[in-house]
Amino acid sequence: MTLWDDPVKGDLQEEYHYLARHESKGYAIRWLVKQWVRLSGRTLGCIIYRSWDMLNSYVKTAVRNFCRHRSYTLINIIGLTIGLVACFLIASFVQDDLSFDQFNQDKDRVYRIYCETTHSGQPFVMALTMLPLAPAITEELPEVEACARISIASNVPFAINHKIFRERIYFVDQPIMDILTFSLKFGDAETALSQPNGLILTAAQSLRFFGDENPLGKSIELDRGKHYVVTGVFEPWPGNSHLPPAAMASLNSLLDNPHQRWNDWTSFGNDYTYVKLTAGTQLSSMEDKLALLHTRHVKSDEIGDDRLRLQALTDIHFSNFNYDMVRTSGRQRLLIFSMIGFFILLIAVFNFINLTTARIALRSKEVGIRKVSGAQRMQLLRQFLVESLSLSAMAGGLALLISIVLLPPFGSLLRRALSSTAILNPALMGLAVALILVVGLLAGLYPALKLSGIKPITSLKKLETGRHRFVSMKTVLVILQFVISITLIVATFTIQRQRNYMMDRPLGFNPHQTISIILNSTPFHGRTEALKAAALALPGVESVAFSHSVPGSGISTASTYTKEGSDEEYYLFGVLSDGNMVETMGFTLLQGRTLREHSQSDAEDAILINESAAKLLGWTDPINRIVVAEEKCYRVVGLVKDAHFESMRYSIEPMLFRISTRVNFMMLRIDPAQVQAISKEMESAWKAIIPGDYPLRLFFFDQAFERYYRSEKRMAEVFTVCAALAVLLSCLGMVALAAFVVNQRLKEMGIRKVLGASTGGLLLNLCVQFIKWVMAASVLAVPLSYWGMERFLQQYPYRTSVPWWLLAMAVGLAICACMVSVLGQTWRAARIQPAQILKSE
Amino acid sequence: MTLLSKPEELLLMAVCHLQDQAYGVEILRYVSEKTGKKWSIGSVYVPLDRLARAGYVESYQGEPTQKRGGKRKRYFKITKAGEQRLLESKQLHDAMWSDISTYLERS
User: Is A17 close to B73, i.e. CB distance below 8 A?
Assistant: First the structure.
């Protein structure tokens, strides 16, 4: 009983009309679709059952055919397998990316509060919030079921058995356990953080600190001699959480630390606020209420353009906010990855279609004989579809196995924990099966339709091989393959070139001539003079400076300034130092003088500004101009040449340099040849001056800046692999296609040779055909990739270009690859003995 | 021999009841109405095919009509063996009911 049986069709039609008349047309259609769906499985079963013998015979023919043309079948399967593996791997990565934070139970109701504002007229979005916000929300907004803060501290020394580990820690409010989903191996999530000084360790930390034993109840001394008790241990941290793994302690533990930020509504630190709304709360009305709450607590002139907004939990991974706690992914990267995966698959599928088509096209004689013996067109169609489907199914099975093996190393290339089982989830498996079916059908359908329509008399009359019949489609597919390959090669080169450009571009100072020591979270207060004296006593140390931020560490202090006598606000980044920074870093002074370290008046109001700041403020002669911040005037005494403090992905910020005692770094200007000796000497001086077991932490500028360009490096790596794959696949297809084309032209070559053609001439004659295809591809690919890469480079304020020779190199590479892959076959044809090939005529 | 399943039994009774009107849609409507559940075309034909293979019903083609887009109806008719089978099934039910009726009435 199938959908095609007349009585069933009749019944369906009759009931459909009945329902359409008595119920409604929509209802009838829904009924019909439901019947079809429920019958489809049975129908398929019936078809297979009824045509079992025929199917058996098709499979037998297919297997015999595969065995007869082993090398072709192998190339075909391997090509499709490689393409599918690439596609599966990328798909599982994309799937992993999309699964971020999906494991949280109440993910639909959980939001993070962020702050939208404007800086110097530019919109500025930051993930930070102020500390008193969360208690106020809990108090005043009943729509919020739970609200909690996460305050991040990095490099916090954990003292365990007199050993010091430096760890990241989250100070949180207890409700965070309810808002986000955490699972604990030891301890109780409900109560672990309700007492001050409770501490939950990550599984990895627990293992490092205490080995395999249960650490509950152990005491750990954290920063500033405070003791915490381990009240819980997390299960291994989920790889797809936007929060990086870290220990957690109650934020209440810090309450005895008198800090103005607890009640300061205008100061932003490393604090993030999460809320869980009650079910059914409207997002927009919630944001309005949040704005109202904001205005209740902050005076309107202090709010300015600040606006508190809500960000869905599952959007965090894809957002790109300033001061976010983690490096997020960005949908653009996801899109690029998916596109690469798709293109590689496309190349592989084109190969498969081309090769299958070419091979089936050679079988017109078989089709003729089958027709003469009574085969119907439908049956022939089915035969070829079975053949191509079994080929694609083999490749698919193989690809699944290989992807499972390759997934962990692929994940480590992308710094993502991808387990082998990730690929076995239903969505990906569905995709895999659909892909295999579609590819198999596509590859089989075209030749099957063409061939099954052949008149037996034409195919049997002569040894007709069906030459030129499929050439047009094949050419198009080959050209498209090379378009993709060339574009990927250009992309690889360009990304690499942009990375090199950013690494080589002058930073505005010599990164090798200055090293820096991280003072942060060590008891250095009051000992800076001793450190300075010790450093200056070393041979090779030219000068010493202390500062709040250094190039490569980012600048965390920024405020709004106005020009004297004007209300217009400018957002400037402040670099706080002891006055020696410009000399020690080797920044170039363009106008005026540098700051004087011990001058009382300089400490009071003197500042230097950089070129970007001068440009922003609209000053060509900034010396002795005044800027105002918080009713305090600052006098510009010097203009400094722009230097990079951040990744070159961002423009140089407008900066001002000011004297301050708030420092985090100590910088030494040194003789680069003596780095080793100086850092060794400095280490012993450090040990003598700083009490306690605090290791000397050095900060090298070249390393810091290299770290900025890691994502470019990773992207270049991925593109290299993908471009190589694309070229390899295109070549694989070329090899088999060359074999096919050459075989068809063997007789022609024989005749040419008899008429006096030389081996070299024949070789040229054959190769020109393939080169022509690649050239045609370049005509398309060159403008396309040039345009694409120029657009890609637009996101960098300091960017390289796509020079003509880079494009030429990519085309050259494609031609070389093409030549290498066709040379074997063409060489064989060019050296043919005419007698051998023509003897049968 | 194996027992009739509930759908098989119900369909067999439906075919028996509908006499010479027993074809797909009619059977579908009859059992849907009696059971108060929506039966799909597949759930009618599949057990009927099984019954036909076992020899309890036989089917024959009717005349094509305009209403059905010119498709023939497939009528089902209960065979002697089928009638026998239904009676056996009823006897089995009755026998087992009489065994439990005392318990059911008590509660």
Answer: no
- Using one digit for the tens of pLDDT, what is the confidence trace for A30-74? 888 888 888 887 777 877 777 788 888 888 888 888 888 888 888
Please name the member of A10, A38, A39 whose beta carbon is closest to the beta carbon of B71. A10
Residue A399 β-bridge partners: none
A800 pLDDT higher than 80: yes
DSSP secondary structure letter of residue A562:
E
Q: Is-contact B82 B51, C-beta < 8 A?
A: yes
Q: Quote the mean pLDDT of chain A.
A: 84
% chain B with pLDDT above 90: 9
- Domain co-membership, A565 together with A644: yes
Q: What is the mean pLDDT of residues A399-414?
A: 85
User: Range of A346's domain?
Assistant: 56-99+331-461
**Per-residue pLDDT reduced to its tens digit, B83-103:** 998 999 999 989 998 888 777
Assess if residue A104 is contained within a domain: no
The interface predicted TM-score of the complex, written ipTM, equals 0.81
DSSP classification of residue A797: S
For A38, nearest residue in chain B (alpha carbons): B42
Instruction: Let me know whether A449 and A596 are in one domain.
Output: no
Closest residue by Cα to residue A802 from A818, A787, A813: A787
Establish if A197 touches chain B: CB-CB under 8 angstroms: no
Q: A263 and A127 in one domain?
A: yes
Residues A714 and A775 placed together within one structural domain of the fold: yes
Nearest CA to A566 out of A653, A636, A626 is that of A626
For residues A301 and A655, the model is more confident at A655
- What residues in A contact B73, CB-CB < 8 Å? 7, 10-11
Query: E-strand spans in A138-241?
Result: 144-160, 163-172, 184-186, 198-201, 219-222, 226-234
Write the DSSP string, A371-392: HHTT--HHHHHHHHHHHHHHHH
Model pLDDT for residues A160-212, shown as the tens digit of each residue: 877 778 888 898 988 888 888 888 888 888 888 888 888 898 988 888 888 88
Q: Which residues 2-21 of A are in CB contact (within 8 Å) with B? A: 6-15, 17-18
Asked if residue A284 and residue A160 are part of one domain, the reply reads yes
Q: Is residue A794 part of a domain?
A: yes
Q: Which of A677, A707, A737 is the last residue of a domain?
A: A707
Secondary structure element (H or E) that encloses residue A584, with its range: helix A581-585
Predicted confidence (pLDDT) per residue in A379-397, tens digit:
888 888 888 888 899 999 9
A554/A645 Cα distance (integer angstroms) = 6
Are the beta carbons of A789 and A490 closer than 8 angstroms?
yes
DSSP A162: T
Q: Are residues A702 and A719 in the same domain?
A: no
Q: Nearest-CA distance from B30 to chain A in Å?
A: 13
pLDDT at A467 over 60: no
Nearest-Å Rg of the Cα atoms of chain A is: 35
SS3 A835: helix
Do A539 and A619 have their domain in common?
A: yes
> Does A34 touch chain B if contact means CB atoms closer than 8 Å?
yes
Residue A325 lies in a domain: no
User: A724 in helix, strand or coil?
Assistant: helix
My answer on whether A159 and A77 are in the same domain is no
Backbone angles phi, psi at A505, to 5 degrees: -60, 135
When divided into structural domains, chain A yields a total of 5
Euclidean distance between CA atoms A647 and A653, whole angstroms:
11
Q: Are A392 and A443 in contact (CB under 8 A)?
A: yes
- Would you identify the CATH topology of the domain B6-106? Arc Repressor Mutant, subunit A (1.10.10)
- Residue A398 has a pLDDT of 93
